[in-house]
Amino acid sequence: SSLLATVINNSVVCPQGAGNGVVAIVGAGSRDTEVINNTVSGCQNGVLAMGWSGGSDAGRINGVIANNLLSVQNAGLEFHSEHTPALPNNFNLINAASAANVPIGPQTLLAPARLVSTTVPRLRADSPAIDAASPAIVGGSLTTYELPAVDVDGLRRTKGAAPDIGAYEYGDAGFRHVATAAGISGHIDHFDHPLA
Fold first, then answer.
1. Which of left, alpha, beta for 67 (phi over 0: left; psi -120 to 50: alpha)?
2. pLDDT value for 196
3. Which helix (H) or strand (E) holds 143?
4. How far does CA 79 lie from the centroid of its chain?
5. Residues 82-117: pLDDT tens digits?
6. Which tens digit of pLDDT belongs to each residue from 154-172?
7. Distance CA 120, CA 16 (A)
8. Which of 84, 115, 119 is closest to 102 using CA atoms?
């Protein structure tokens, strides 16, 4: 039997380094897994692909792991080789003590992620993730799954020469404003310095 699992455009933040980011597990048969444009911050590990305890050694995880920002404590990518003989990974940014236990794709970056913070994993202006994702992979996932061209905040997915690695696209600003009776005059809501 075969199962498709897609994990696209999510932000995973682990409090105090507990837990793992994205985990793909197979018991028997095959699992097609696409993990694309996610941000994992503060967790023990970034993306794990492994067999179920007591499952068949013949179980396989196929698919693609790409455009993910993995700022974690231990391993960015942890694949159990008997279950992932052909699971490609590329265009990821890995900021971890151990990058991966498998060969990493040639466009994967091993560098500090330069995030606002571990708990607010948006990109800073100097992040190497900016414009470093694969436009073909982003475009393909948006088309295949009929997703809107926005990041996890609902802002434009591509603003520069290419999409950014991870769930957040750098460059736009968004804000939320709650109207109160004190701030409304007639039918007009007043507010000053919304981004301050």
1. left
2. 45
3. helix 135-144
4. 17
5. 999 989 999 999 999 999 999 999 999 999 999 999
6. 888 888 899 999 999 998 7
7. 13
8. 84
- Letter for the amino acid at 10? N
pLDDT given for residue 178 in this prediction: 63
190 pLDDT band, cuts 50/70/90, is low
Structure token digits, residue 51: 């067999």
Rama region for 91: left / alpha / beta (φ>0; ψ in -120 to 50; rest)? left
SS (H, E, C) 62-104: EEEEECCEEECCCEEEEECCCCCCCCCEECCEEECCEEECCCC
Closest CA to 46 of 15, 14, 85, 72: 72
Task: Return the H-helix or E-strand segment holding 22.
Answer: strand 20-26
Q: Does residue 181 sit in helix, strand or coil?
A: helix
pTM for the predicted model, two decimal places: 0.86
Per the CB < 8 A criterion, the answer to whether 67 and 158 are in contact is: no
3-state DSSP call for residue 157? coil
